[in-house]
Specification:
Largest sheet: 9 strands, mixed
Bound molecules: 6-O-phosphono-beta-D-glucopyranose
Organism: Neisseria iguanae
Number of strands: 15
Function: Catalyzes the oxidation of glucose 6-phosphate to 6-phosphogluconolactone.
CATH class of the largest domain: Alpha Beta
Structural class: alpha/beta
EC number: 1.1.1.49
CATH superfamily of the largest domain: Dihydrodipicolinate Reductase, domain 2
GO cellular component, one term: cytosol
Enzyme class: oxidoreductase
Helix content: 25-40%
CATH topology of the largest domain: Dihydrodipicolinate Reductase, domain 2
């Protein structure tokens, strides 16, 4: 297949937030970069009755503003020529006839991508209706947006339903964190650099911290968020993927199944939690009002007595030769002090009698994924002068500045991969279900637990209980080190 695959992209939920804010702007960038086949079409689909012209008017108002770079009127005008609109109600089998006809009328189409940016409860019906008009042929790929289920059983159900009509190699389960350049770079750092790979184990590494902190609160998503919570929204998927990329063994190759085989091994090697052990290893938090900032319970569409977590911290352990004895601390939160996603590897301390003012946890590798993409290795160097003192100094690679070339947004990379049939950055069924299995005892514990989540002040670094989780092991979160 050519690099520019001739495609039809059928975008369900085309009037929704994700399509307008992310998917269409990212497709525009791919268009400008010459990465889309000249004849590739985008078919916006939703149940709203309108024609292409009215849809394009919506795109003009709601999507164009999200194009943050490389904007030009000419490019935009040529991009929107790719877009058409069709009214299709996913629950209405009759509506699919026109869709099938439209897609199949173009014989030169090499790849048909059906992106289901709809609520998961519609996935089964959408797939059945697609299949009824032949839109599950071998050249059709279906993209499923997260959250894929609300627990292990519902996720299995979705996978079974979709699996009735599509083969595993046609199913692209998206986790946009895997589309981030900075996360893919973790594999390059590890497997292309002898000094990192040789030290990437329990002999040298004392503990690992994986953080996704956001400054925003739940905004207008209260209704969705309150039945979802941080564990389902961020931990089961994004943090789990960060963990896999950090901890996996070298894959045989970067082919999809080689990478996914290694990732699933990491999740399966996690020491299982039990309903009881959750009490000691997991912290559930919720942001409280601070100054002008509202607390979670005052947010729109959030019940006043809600226990939904906006913060989670987990102490996880990987039971394999490489990582035995190394705690992996995972945490995420809304309304935190800063917006940052990072991986921090703390190295063991040297038994240092030569430089007695050596700092504990002086050596660490900080891989910052966002907002800046950087790698910082902290080392001790001699303080200039007559004494024999050392001080911690970072060696920094600023990937945003030092590397030439455009760094595509996650969704751009992922959409191109679906169009071109590359599954490496998408989740396989067993991987996803293993992640659900790991978090299930947490959900079960919380379902029975009558203790309210630990409160933390909006724009702080989370509840004290999360600090205590690390203090028990003599550790500190990165911002306190
Ligand atoms: C989404 C979550 O998957 O990821 C959001 O649903 C969250 O709640 C977002 O804000 C974070 O993504 P990023 O790329 O901004 O870190």
């Amino acid at each position: 297949m050519s690099i520019q695959t001739n495609f039809d992209l059928v975008l369900f939920g085309a009037t929704g937030d994700l399509a307008m804010r992310k998917l269409l702007p990212c497709l525009y960038q791919a268009h400008v970069a010459g990465l889309l086949h000249p004849q590739g079409r985008i078919l916006g689909v939703s149940r709203s009755e309108m024609d292409t012209e009215s849809f394009l008017a919506k795109v003009e108002t709601n999507s164009k503003i999200h194009v943050k770079q490389n904007f030009s009127d000419e490019q935009w005008a040529s991009f929107i020529k790719r877009i058409e609109y069709l009214t299709v109600n996913v629950t209405c089998p009759e509506d699919f006839a026109a869709l099938g006809k439209k897609v199949k009328s173009r014989v030169e189409t090499e790849s048909v991508v059906v992106y289901l940016s709809t609520a998961p409860k519609f996935f089964a019906q959408a797939c059945e209706n697609l299949a009824s008009v032949g839109l599950n042929a071998d050249n059709v790929r279906v993209v499923l947006e997260k959250p894929l289920g609300t627990d292990l059983v519902s996720s299995q159900q979705i996978n079974n339903d979709v699996g009735e009509y599509f083969k595993e190699e046609q199913i692209y389960r998206i986790d946009h964190y895997l589309g981030k350049e900075s996360l893919q770079n973790v594999l390059a750092l590890r497997f292309a650099n002898v000094m990192f790979e040789s030290m990437w184990n329990n002999k040298y590494i004392k503990s690992v911290q994986l953080t996704i902190a956001e400054q925003l609160g739940v905004e207008e998503r209260g209704e969705f968020y309150d039945i979802t919570g941080a564990l389902r929204d961020m931990v089961q998927n994004h943090l789990m993927q960060m963990l896999c990329m950090t901890a996996m063994e070298p894959p045989k190759s970067l082919d999809a199944d080689d990478v996914r085989d290694e990732k699933v091994k990491v999740i399966k090697a996690l020491k299982p939690l039990t309903i009881e052990s959750v009490n000691d290893n997991v912290v559930r938090g919720q942001y409280a009002a601070a100054g002008e900032m509202k607390g979670y319970l005052q947010e729109l569409n959030v019940p006043a007595e809600s226990f939904t977590e906006t913060y989670v911290a987990i102490k996880a352990e990987i039971e394999n030769e490489r990582w035995q004895g190394v705690p992996f601390y995972l945490r995420t939160g809304k309304r935190m002090a800063d917006k940052v996603a990072e991986i921090v590897l703390n190295f063991h301390d040297l038994d240092n009698h030569i430089f007695p003012n050596s700092k504990p946890l002086a050596n660490r590798l900080v891989i910052e994924l966002q907002p800046f993409d950087s790698v910082r290795l902290c080392v001790q160097v001699k303080t200039p002068g007559t004494g024999n003192h050392v001080e911690v100094t970072p060696m920094t690679i600023d990937l945003d500045k030092q590397l030439e070339g455009r760094r595509p947004e996650a969704y751009e990379r992922l959409l191109l991969d679906v169009i071109n049939g590359n599954l490496a950055l998408f989740n396989r069924r067993d991987e996803l279900e293993a992640a659900w299995e790991y978090v299930m005892p947490i959900l079960d514990n919380w379902a029975q637990n009558t203790q309210a989540p630990h409160r933390y002040a909006a724009h702080s670094w989370g509840p004290d209980a999360a600090r205590e989780l690390l203090a028990r092991e003599g550790d500190k979160w990165h911002e306190d080190q």
